[in-house]
Amino acid sequence: MADLSDIARRVEHLRAEVARHERLYRVEHQPEITDARFDALVRELQELEDAHPELAAPDSPSRTVGDDRLDAFETVRHIRPMASLDNTYSRDELSAFDQRLMRTLADERADPGEPLPYIVEPKIDGLAISLVYEDGRLVRAVTRGNGEEGDNVTANVRTIPTLPDHLDGDGHPDLIEIRGEIYMTLAEFQRVNQEREREGEPKFMNPRNLAAGTIKQLDPRVVARRRLEIVLYSVGAHEGIRFDRQRDVHERFRAWGLPVVEKYWQARGLGEAWAAIEELDRLRSTFAYPTDGAVIKLDRVAWQDIAGSTSKAPRWAISYKFAAEQAETVLRKISIQVGRTGALTPVAELDPVVIAGSTVSRATLHNEDEIARKDIREGDTVIVEKAGEIIPAVVRVVTEKRPAGAAPFDFAARLRELGHDAERVPGQAAWRLKGRNNPDLTRRRIEHFAGRTAMDIDGLGTEIVRQLIDADVVRDIPDLYRLKPDDLLPLEKFAQKSADNLVAAIDASRANDLWRLIHGLGIPHVGAQSAKDLARHFKSLDALMAADTGTLAEVDGIGPVMAESITAFFADPDNEARVRALADEAEVNTRALDADAPDQPQTLDGLTFVITGTLPSLSRDEAKALIESAGGKCTGSVSKKTDYLLAGESAGSKLDKANALGIPVIDEAKLRAMLDG
Predict the structure, then answer these.
(1) pLDDT digits over 231-244, tens only?
(2) Is residue 596 part of a domain?
(3) Is 123 among the catalytic positions?
(4) Is the same domain home to 423 and 450?
(5) pLDDT tens digits, 512-536
(6) Beta-bridge partner residues of 337
(7) Residue 615 · residue 624 · CB < 8 Å
């Protein structure tokens, strides 16, 4: 038997590890381990505490929900505590759950052997939220927090287009806490990541992390641009209403116009519940949102009350987690990816393998510490899975298949081998290029500057930029504007016409709108939309450069972190010199194109539009720009919060939905009349 002091040390270690991973998952949205690995740590801690009650503690992470609260938000107490769910990964564990409930409820049933009634729901992988409606009106939205109290994120939640401010119909309860999940669709996750990739920013790992991070943004406009969704499925405190069964909750929510799960199953006993879980597993790939399991709940609310709860989770419900699809392959090489800000990210180059219906040849390795923790080596046979079903990740090494002579990976040595002059960021696992004239950093800087969402220089792609730097024709961004066709002709694949075209494209970019230049400069944390916000507010680059942190933080869409990043960027002598060279020597436009135009009347202020079909003389982007310039907002889907549907020819399902909801439908002529007031 292990010495008690050894067990105590193990308990303290597990508590620290569980708390650390809770914070990575709930607060920083950068988990380092899988849910299964985390649950295994919690389970080991629980077993040790149960076996040695003298080591138990009421605040142990095995007995608490965790905590997602941030200092930047107001803390609000839940009316009824908001628990989490226990997880299970096998049918045997589900059977044990069912048997415990059978014993607990034996006296409540005429036939103690009769199967229990269950509801099986998809477990959507998102962020738990609690909404408070009073007399049918949304008054508050609060994150789970520590279960007792959470962050007030009402302003951010109101940006979700499918969530009504008022409940439909009559007979609303005086007060009700409605619980559910905020999530991001797979399509929106891909869109955001594609935008990040174009801007040279690292991709988000999975939709859950992105949704959780988005709802904690300080600026609701940032939240609105990321198109979050919500689904609601349970109740907390409630007055003036009664629910007898869990299925009544779904039916009442749907009648109120609330978004609910698209499918759930009623089941008698564990056998039918398991069949429902298997059907869900087959169907979930067709859903628009990420699902990582099934939730099994007792259907009868009175029996839920009898079953009760622990300090952390209800005893009448449990989550069954699907196993992530994995595959075995060989890691041939660890390459290093350079971001536009100089961040260096390790990537596994794999023998192609099919996972979840797609071919995977590259996978994230996160950082140097993760490579060391998993002891990943080049030549290893590895197990790869799609983390969050989206981005492939190396889970573990099959050490018994490790080739002889495979050496531990030396991150610093690989950087030296690649010629990267880099340093590890103090207190972090990240590496970053140093040296202001680093050719790799220069290449990424110019690629970003020329990109479609920045200066949009047609023909200036990755390979051309590499040739320009290798030939020492271009050393920094301003050098682009000194190029002549003769400078390009010695390079590969250049003839007179292609050289003339590229020089003409570079020359044309001088006249771009200010926001493109701001974004093209590569200011950390400043994306395309933030660049538009800055250009709209300051009108000129000189005014932006002169602004202090406090002034910047007051701009819609710009928070304190971004404000500090902007002031630090322009305070750097190299950045200032680069900007001055672009403005004074290259004569790149540094004023907003509408800076001298009279202010656009805000005739559409506060109105929300959806655009569908083909308009007579406007593209959708042009129509959107007109609406936004007049103070309106455009969203992608029709809901009760939509004020107008702008419809052209071949309008489809959006027109049908607008008619069903009684939303006014306008054409292009009506829009122009509204713009004119």
Answers:
(1) 999 999 999 899 99
(2) no
(3) yes
(4) no
(5) 999 999 999 989 878 777 888 899 8
(6) 345
(7) no
